[in-house]
Amino acid sequence: MATFPIYIRHFDGSQRAFDITLTDTVKDVKEMMEEGDMFDLIYAGAELDDKQTLEPNMELEMVVDRQKLAESRADEIFDYEGSSFWEYGGATTESERGYVEMEFPPPTDININMMPFVFGDKNSIPSEYHGYLPLINSCWGLRSGQICYLTIQESLVKKDTSQRRAGLHIETPGSFENLHPKHRLGGGDNMRVDWGIGVMEYSCYGGIYMSSTVSDSCRVFNCRIREDKLTEPGIVRSHGDVSHLEPELKLICEHRKKYAPFVDNHVINMRPKALYWITDRTPHESLPLAEDTYRQYFRVVSPSISVWFADHSTANPLGIVPPSDVIILKGNKFE
How far apart are CA 163 and CA 26, in angstroms? Predict the structure, then answer.
């Protein structure tokens, strides 16, 4: 049977020629390609149906089918067995169950980030932050004597902006490869960067604790990037960015709703003054606020960190410093 060429612009920018017959369909062409069925073919701005036949010398464009790609990758990338966050007091749903409302002190425009302190020793914390001791002492999975890291941000947040980092991300940047080149190790860049880790085995160990005074200001997904995917190129991007995985995250939520309809914590917006525990692999994002709002944000990161960014962190004036096995990095981590 006679053949004729068609031309497909690959999503990597290259143009490829394929010889096909008059009876070959779009589906047949897709089967010729190594990407399988994870893309759509576009002609003159319109998506072609899989049953459609093609004409000689057509110039097509290949675009990723995010839905199909998400379906194939969701289980490979995410671990959603068990809990990836926990709410203080045992409440794990957004149902009518009550929750523990934590005590926040009157705000004084505090702004500290990742300040080292000794958990269980209030004398290792400057007195101006002692109003947060009840919250600190409620971080139930930490042990006295451990060096942990305290963040407090009290500020006015303008309408349609977020106080903290917007966009879906995880706290660990994945590997050293995802840091700025000046902060890489050289020869060990595929190593995992710890930023609290976090394990749930009957209770919470390590991890990150956080709370704020404003409702619907932070969204958390109850799943986590698989440990073996953290250092795989392209899964976790610069500084923990996972916003490109949002289709996969939505599929995870749909899957959990279908097979566990009695659970309503697949994704939540954090409640005001509730204390949450998450892992450093748990996707979350700070949300824009509907109105100008004063927000108090609190976070404690557990001892298991690989690096401490000196220029982005607050030195403890009482002399508490990260332990010797933590790498101290200086300079702007984004430049």
Answer: 48
Cβ contacts of 119-124, under 8 Å, gap ≥ 24: 119/143, 119/144, 119/145, 119/146, 119/147, 119/148, 119/300, 120/144, 120/145, 120/146, 121/145, 123/318, 124/316, 124/318, 124/320
Burial class (CB in 10 A: 0-12, 13-18, 19+), 71: middle
Name the strand (E) or helix (H) holding 66.
Answer: helix 66-77
Q: What pTM does this model have? A: 0.76
Residue 71: CA atoms inside 13 Å, Cβ hemisphere, count?
Answer: 7
130-159 confidence digits (pLDDT tens): 999 999 999 988 999 999 999 999 999 999
Angle at which helix 66-77 crosses helix 246-259, to 10 degrees, equals 70
pLDDT tens digit sequence for 236-249: 888 899 998 887 78
DSSP of 10-35: -TTS-EEEEEE-TT-BHHHHHHHSTT
Query: Minimal CA–CA distance to 34: which of 6, 62, 54, 71?
Result: 62
Q: How far apart are CA 20 and CA 7, in angstroms?
A: 11
